[in-house]
């Protein structure tokens, strides 16, 4: 159990770090260098750790929800006013994180299919499957339209400007909304992760 927890935490940390760095790279591409100036365009996990989202919450979920692990890293900062004009740049920055998780899941899903067809070691198959699953969890979780998750930023990007005044209100209580979502609403979304896992890997979750 302890070894399984360590493996999943390492996979989670790798995945959330790549997620956040991709946010920063997208922001830099569209004109904002805040993340770069603050030294956050690095794969060093120590620069991205969030004590609650990267350690406490994953541990709580692992030991209370049958080995499920997901969480988040410290968000990479960016200044939307430095981005190129238009709504697409902010939406692209928000989408970059979940897109990176999907890319990771897709690559390791191919490796898992190859591993199953060539009878690779059970350890390889287990770790590969865990990487796919954790990244699909992160992708689906972050695409939920709950502030301050990436899905909410995508939603705000297409909001009529007259509704922008509601954005600050919802983002002010973002942490509380995310916790409520995880413990009360995530159960209704989680089956989607299993479906995506099966589509990508051909294996049951």
What's a concise summary of this model?
Helix content is 69%, strand content 0%. It is mainly α. The protein has one domain.
Mind sketching the topology for me?
Layout: H1 2-29, H2 34-37, H3 51-64, H4 88-117, H5 122-142, H6 150-158, H7 165-172, H8 174-201
Helix pairs in contact: 1-3, 1-4, 1-5, 4-5, 4-6, 5-8
How would you describe what is shown here?
The protein is an all-alpha fold. It contains eight helices and no strands. Helix 1 packs antiparallel against helix 3, helix 4 (88-117) packs antiparallel against helix 5 (122-142) and helix 5 packs across helix 8 (174-201).
Number of domains: 1
**Unreliable segments (pLDDT under 50, ≥5 consecutive)?**
none
Q: Which percent range fits the helix content?
A: 55-70%
What order do the helices and strands follow?
HHHHHHHH
Number of strands: 0
Tally of helical runs: 8
Mean pLDDT comes to 88
Q: What spatial form do the alpha-carbon principal axes imply?
A: globular
Strand content: under 5%
How far do the termini sit from each other?
18 Å
Radius of gyration: 17 Å
What would the keywords be for this entry?
205 residues, globular, mainly alpha, single chain
């Amino acid at each position: 159990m302890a070894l399984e927890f360590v493996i999943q935490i390492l996979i989670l940390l790798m995945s959330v770090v790549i997620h956040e760095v991709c946010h920063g790279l997208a922001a830099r591409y569209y004109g904002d260098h805040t993340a770069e100036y603050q030294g956050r365009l690095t794969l060093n996990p120590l620069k991205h750790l969030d004590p609650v989202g990267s350690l406490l919450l994953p541990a709580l979920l692992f030991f209370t929800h049958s080995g499920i692990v997901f969480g988040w890293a410290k968000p990479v900062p960016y200044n939307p006013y430095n981005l190129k004009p238009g709504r697409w740049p902010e939406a692209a920055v928000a989408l970059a994180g979940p897109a990176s998780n999907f890319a990771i899941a897709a690559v390791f899903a191919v490796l898992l299919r190859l591993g199953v067809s060539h009878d690779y070691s059970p350890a390889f198959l287990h770790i590969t499957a865990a990487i796919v699953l954790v990244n699909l969890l992160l992708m689906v979780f972050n695409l939920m339209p709950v502030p301050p998750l990436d899905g909410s930023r995508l939603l705000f990007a297409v909001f009529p400007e007259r509704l922008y005044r509601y954005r600050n209100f919802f983002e002010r209580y973002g942490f509380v909304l995310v916790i409520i979502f995880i413990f009360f609403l995530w159960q209704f979304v989680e089956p989607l992760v299993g479906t995506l896992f099966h589509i990508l890997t051909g294996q049951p979750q």
